[in-house]
Amino acid sequence: MKPANPRILTINGGSASIKFALFEAGDSLRRILEGGIERIGLPKATLRVTGPDRADNVSRPVTAPDHMVAVGALIDWIEEHVGRDALTAVGHRVVHGGPKYSMPQRITAEMVEELRRLSPFDPEHLPEEILLTEAFHRRFPDLPQVACFDTAFHHDLPRVAQLLPIPRRCEAQGVRRYGFHGLSYAFLMGELARLAGAEAAHGRVILAHLGNGASLAAVRNGKSMDTSMGFTPTAGVPMSTRSGDLDPGLVWYLARTEGLDAKRFNEMVNFQSGLLGMSETSSDMRDLLDRETQDVRAAEAIALFCYQVKKWIGAFAAALGGLDTLVFAGGIGENAPTVRARICDGLEFLGIALEEKRNAANEGVISMAASRVVVRVVRTDEERMIAKTVCRVLGLG
Hints:
The chain is of the alpha/beta class.
């Protein structure tokens, strides 16, 4: 029997954070609470919660030296303030589904073991995500949990877009282009259909999810045709702390000149590069925009980011045979008009023409009426997408 008002908890585990949101299902999904634990592994970890009433808002320090302790603190808070029996299901964002998982599904012991085997595909995320599912199972053994894979949107990429030009034996091990940000892209395509109609959603679309992690996807007829991230989320455009695409010869060069081994190289390209590495001051685009007139390093970091995103837009327009809609999303894509303007500057040959005032106001449509390409700003919502997926998988709502 279905619960009268199912409550779905969504969990999104990152390398230094655990985000959550609580939804009530019914005629529509209603967000009740959202928050998380930030700065895991650092001295000033914080539990933050926001809700519709001021009394729901929480911001307090917690001890969170690792994800195991952090998730325990989060579950304690949920049991105390939401109620042990108030939850109907939990939905987890799982970054990598590998070659096997192309659809969201209920988490089982067999799936957990398979995800352990997949951990070398994404050692930065999968071990912590497995830990989160197990922690909830220990505390809520009868509560259904659903895995929502961030690679699923790109699972059926055309073969030419999947292939990596390395020896064939690697493909047999599952090495291919997977792509990520799939939950965001699925949500954005649904929003595009709602806002602009089915015809626009089935046209030639480039989605630019630009945040701490940044990627682009080329979509035609509602299906992913290519994406900038590859076997791991490190590939593609420069990000807050990730390098994006690099010459693989750097591995051998830095091994010889600095004695950099594989582990330290991985740490460099994932946590010390991107905007942080180029600016040497901050991984946050807002900080860099504030400093760019006084600090050439900040200015160059922004310029390279915009240049690389612009190149991917041009490449994907070629792959799609033209462009009908460009969508900006993510923290930078939704809130940085200056960055959007610099990315689009010079793309007039594709039919892109921004309207300055609309762009400055972060309006939903920021292109001129005469622009051949409609340029949109759409707020993405991965948590809502997870909750919708859980409802579909479990037949709730």
